[in-house]
Amino acid sequence: MSPRYGTGIVSTEFQRIDTTRLKSSVNNALHVANVPRSSPVAIFTVARRTAFVLRSRQSHPSSSPRALPLITATRTNMEHINFQSATTSVNAAATSGIVCACANASANVPPKFNVCAHAPATNVSITLNGASRMVYSITRSVNARAVKRVGARPVPTSTSSALSPASDARARAIAHRLDLDLVVVPNDVTPVVTIHARPTRAVAFATPLSTTPSHRRRAHPRPRRIVLVALVALVDSDSDTNDDDDEDDDDEDDGTNSSGFGSSVTTSTSSTPVKWTTRTRTRTTRTTTRAARGGGGRGGRGRRGRGRRGRRGRRFDPSKGIKMSCTHVGERVLEWRGECALEGARGARITYRYAVVDEHGSVIAWDGETREVSPEATRAARGGVECVDAWTTRAHAEHVFESKGFASVVAPSPTLSQHSDGKTAGKNGQGWEFHEHIVPERAEWHFLASRAGTASAPTRVIKARFEIRAPRVTGDRRVRIRGSCPALGAGDATKSLGLGRRAESDAWWIEFDVDANDAPFEYSYFISSGSGGGDDDEVVHEAHGVRECSCTVNNELVDAAGETYVFKRDGVFEYADAWRGAGMALPVFATRTEQSVGCGDFMDLQHMVDFAAATGMSVVQVLPVNDTCVHGTWWDSYPYSSLSVHALHVMYLRPQLLAGLTQELKDEIDVARVALNLKEIDYEATVKTKLDIARRAYENDASVLERDGFIAYFKENEHWLKPYAVFCVLRDLFGTAEHWRWGVFSEFSDDVLEKVSGETSALRASVRFYYYLQYHLHAQLFAVSEYAKGSGIVLKGDLPVGVDKCSVDTWMHPRLFRMNTSTGAPPDAFDRNGQNWGFPTYNWEHMAEDDYAWWRSRMHHLEQYFSAIRIDHILGFFRIWELPASARTGRMGRFRPSLPITRDELLSRGIWDIDRLTEPFLQWHEMEREFDERTQEIAFRFMIEHDPPRGLWRFRPEFRTEAAIFKATTPRAGIPQEFVDDQLQIRASLMKLFQNRILLIDSENIDAFYPRFGLEETSSYEALDPWMRDNLHDLSNDYYFGRQTNTWRKQARKVLPALLNASNMLVCGEDLGFTPTCVPSVMAELGILGLRIQRMPPVGESAEFGRPHTYSYLTVCSPSCHDTMTTRAWWEEDADRRRRYDEMFGVGGDATCTPEVMREILKQHVSSPSVLAIFPIQDLLALDSEYAKRPALEETINDPTNPKHYWRFRLHVRCEDLLANKAFVKEIQNIIADRAHY
User: Cα dist. 836→861, 888, 891 in Å?
Assistant: First the structure.
């Protein structure tokens, strides 16, 4: 069958661009083209990156067109201005493989660019004469969205809605030259010429010319195709073919008794081949995005997903798949169809899934689900088997309920049992026994009985199996189906059928027989509150839209002899309104209650859970709670620098609940509670007090370690608890957590554990103290977690991306870390100088050897406390900003993994003086500018003249690292402040000179280089010749925005699924900062929620502030976060910014952030489509004028520009008082009332 194609399945990526540079390029182009300055000029900035070359014949009508400079057009806020006058003809040349079509109109209709389309590599001249009274718009589909008008303007005269013969012929001639299919779409005002690209000439994907090495650059776009990939597993004819009995055999492999497309099957129960037809329908606005950018991911749902493997652990082979053809079904749906005859597959189980591949057969995206055809269907289907599937993604509204840990809290069953305290409970205290087994109903009004003995008796039976996923349906609610065929009640709603469901599954299904004469027929799903389907059952939800069932496009199966099996899988039950929740974010240490000692503790969270429940919220989000006691000072207040990724921090202990407390200790606790009740946290005093009380309580009574509760806890956590306790003892013994300085104990081993913690060890009691401490911390946090679940509140945790170099984990697993490096972030909105966190980067190659077991262990451990998790700096799972261990700032880094600039690339561009680019560019006038009259003193101390003819200097060998410069310029203790300031100024100037370079050398390969971030800002760059600057600028742009995309996409697809499959938590990713273009699409395909902070617009947004009403559903929106100033401080800091914000949103221009202003800002986020709106507690307090009297800057949690920031923020109002303030509670209730809850 000849395939039919719809709009192109293509990929485009956003490209950041300097608007000033773009305007400069345009001016140069106009000058070369000899276009007068007075002529109007237009730049059509398409929504996606497009590279094009313009040629003009204005001044040279008899000669070949002159090439203008390459212009890369990107989404900007620039206004449309005309590129040429009405009398100018502009040709579109395909020298680069890209054609830019330009329409000229009459003088009273301004001409403008329209769009680019891929064309053959020949020059094509397109001229639409100005005499025409209409404007043609050659359009394309961006990411296979519905056909889109680009640049068509109404003509201020009456015109026919049909093209004139001459115009029609001209348009078709253009299309023919471009090798495009032409469709003419009538419009009430202006006819629009619409171009549908054939896949051999896929539309509009261009790589900037001469910026990527030829061996990496793709000269033409990849056509996208969907293929059907299957595994055929033979089942013995005498074996049990019940699907329910084969649910847990995923990991088995039956060797040769299986096949895929393209392989022969040597054994069969019948020699007759099975005729198999599949269809999958996709929306053009979604499918193409996944087709172009999707892939991998969880192959099923939750922890039981099969990924890219089918049943019994066999891997799908796309090279053996069936290439499917495509047709349009309406304006927004594509239907892909494939057909084959499976030789020797009679009685076999077919496991299959869909994949999007390029022209080489490489997988771009996998469908999100693995499907099956049962053995009984392939055995009995004489007329064939047809599968009609909806393309599945995780970017749908019900995805959040596929995370069972989250769903069991926010969407509890209506029939839960009740505790005596009124709190709900179920399996493991997590809400309910999730998804019990339900048997589907069978119709009593079966059509065979109703038609028996009549002339309309059926001549052919269709065996139908319908499936739909409904994760939210629990308790006594049930999915039901009704339809126009007799088997589904012939349109009688009282004769609907209830679907069945397997235990622990969210897929509902039903099987019934259909007379072939009744096809096609319509049907719909709904949810009822009872199982009987009678008049007493309430219809709770109607699925969106009416569906139709027909057997193939051309009814081939219906006309065939014998039974036909039809598997109709309809994706996910779509509700009329998506669930949306609200919540608040606060660090545990920031809470304040009557029982707090120095800082907030785990038990204080119970009050915040009550506050969230009273105000109608669904989520309480906290910062990491891991142990960070590395230095023994307030530096350890940084919650993202983990000493252990499993252990909890002692600062969150409620000492009043310890076993072994004497009256003396209780009195000391009361004294400490009053003494430490400060405005801000005294970290060192708080930790010291709690450790001292806990140690003395342990010495008084350690019998808790002999009880069943601790024994069970120790057995489950021994793999990390014993090494952690031993590490802490050795840290205390040696006085440092730098384990490489511990002599014979510096290398982790079981012998070391035994020597320190064994029965005969003198340190055994000290080791067991840390068991005692962690057990109490676990018991308290677990109790709060259960309390939150029982109250219907999701406790959302935080997963730090890094660990401290001096940590238990680097001691136990040194192969997993690159200890000679540091982790950070490049310059971004948080810090213009970048960030250096000091964590070692990960050795992903070694982590992959055990399928990322270390990460999976972390996720599994956190799941016992949290129902949702925030992954800090999720960009690090795509690529991490890696710095040398000697670095002290975040500028001199490179991305890992990444494709470097090679020496051959530089030489091919005529760049041979590479030392000049890799060394700091130091000249005497540069140093004079920094040091003034002290230049000679500082220069001869830190530098040495290297190249006198060129006047170049170098740093002395002892000062050739940032660490050495920092050490040499560290002020001595006790000197006057003016001398301290002077030393710090010298340090800043030296660092500026040290970083004044263009390329960084790879420490492991001297022929690989990385562009220094922001190299265009350096004087070293400005001193180069223009041609060299242009080449280096192109290479830098390609490194950061071009060549890495596929590398980073593949990296994330390898690592993130391992984390997602390890737990049932809802996963959110902090994707702020310098975000690669591939991040949003990969997060969407994996179902990871993104983060939206209004003052930090997402990728592709050109506005200064984000627009909450435009956020996508699978996001978490917030006006601020712990890494930014509070909204109140941000509002009051900058009057000009405040004015611009008011002009955009109209919230008022008061100099202070009044409760009225804050209310309007919060309402923007409440109205957002985002699934969660999370509000920092400081922003909520700003709603009350009394609470807002505290200076706004005092409420800042973190300053990302300061690597040694003291995390000591604490609420100035007690949690009990917040809950008792009825007016405040009511205010928040009213604001978030618009959030739709289940």
Answer: 28, 7, 9
Sequence-separated (6 or more) residues with CB below 8 Å from residue 936 = none
Q: How confident is the model at residue 326 (pLDDT cuts 50, 70, 90)?
A: confident
E-assigned strand segments in 197-344? 225-234, 258-260, 274-283, 322-323, 325-329, 333-342
Give the C-alpha distances (Å, rounded to integers) separating 168 from 155, 157, 358, 390, 792: 17, 19, 34, 38, 63
Give the torsion sign (CA, 807, 808, 814, 817): negative
pLDDT at 316: 75
- CB < 8 Å & 24+ apart, contacts of 380-383: 380/463, 380/563, 380/565, 381/274, 381/463, 381/562, 381/563, 381/564, 381/565, 382/272, 382/561, 382/562, 382/563, 383/275, 383/460, 383/557, 383/560, 383/561, 383/562, 383/563, 383/564
As a whole number of angstroms, the distance between CA 878 and CA 1076 comes to 9
Tell me which DSSP letter residue 18 carries: -
How many helices and strands in the chain, by DSSP H and E? 32, 50
The identity of residue 1155, as a single letter, is P
Which amino acid belongs to residue 1036? S
Backbone phi and psi for residue 831, each to the nearest 5 degrees, phi listed first:
-150, 120
In degrees rounded to 5, what are phi and psi of residue 602?
A: -60, -40
CB burial class (10 A; 0-12, 13-18, 19+) of residue 715?
A: exposed
Q: Quote the pLDDT of residue 351.
A: 85
Q: What is the C-alpha separation between 180 and 193, in angstroms, rounded?
A: 12
- Burial-class residue 833 by CB neighbours within 10 Å (0-12, 13-18, 19+): middle
Give the Cα separation of 1227 and 750 in Å (integer). 58
What residue type is 97 in one-letter code?
Answer: G
In 3D, which of 395, 358, 394 has the Cα closest to residue 8? 358
Q: Could you tell me which residues come within 8 angstroms of residue 418 by beta carbon, excluding any fewer than 6 positions away?
A: 424, 425
Predicted TM-score (pTM) of this structure:
0.76
Backbone angles phi, psi at 235, to 5 degrees: -120, 130
Collapsed DSSP state (helix, strand, coil) of residue 637 = helix
Q: What are phi and psi of 799, to 5 degrees?
A: -105, 105
Phi, psi for 370 (deg, rounded to 5): -100, 130
- Closest alpha carbon to 628 in 657, 652, 654, 597: 652
Do 621 and 585 contact (CB within 8 A), yes or no? yes
Q: Give dist(CA 786, CA 781) in Å, integer.
A: 9
Band (276; pLDDT cuts 50, 70, 90): low
Beta strands at 50-52 and 794-799: parallel, antiparallel or unpaired = unpaired
Stated as kind and residue range, the H or E segment containing 22 is helix 19-32
CA–CA dist 312, 298 (Å, integer): 16
DSSP three-state, residue 500? strand
Between 25 and 376, the more confident residue is 376
User: Chain centroid to CA 492: how far?
Assistant: 45
Per DSSP, the residues of 1093-1140 read ETTB--TT--SSS--GGG--SSEEEES--TTS--HHHHHHH-HHHHHH
Per-residue confidence band for 92, with pLDDT thresholds at 50, 70 and 90: very low
Residues 1153, 1182 contacting (CB under 8 angstroms): yes
**In this model, does residue 62 exceed pLDDT 90?**
no
Question: Which SS3 state, helix, strand or coil, does residue 901 take?
Answer: strand
- pLDDT tens readout for residues 521-538: 899 999 988 655 555 568
The answer to whether the beta carbons of residues 607 and 1216 sit under 8 Å apart is: yes
CA distance 637 to 589: 10
Q: What is the Cα–Cα distance from 40 to 955, expressed in whole angstroms?
A: 53
Structure tokens at 543: 């699925």
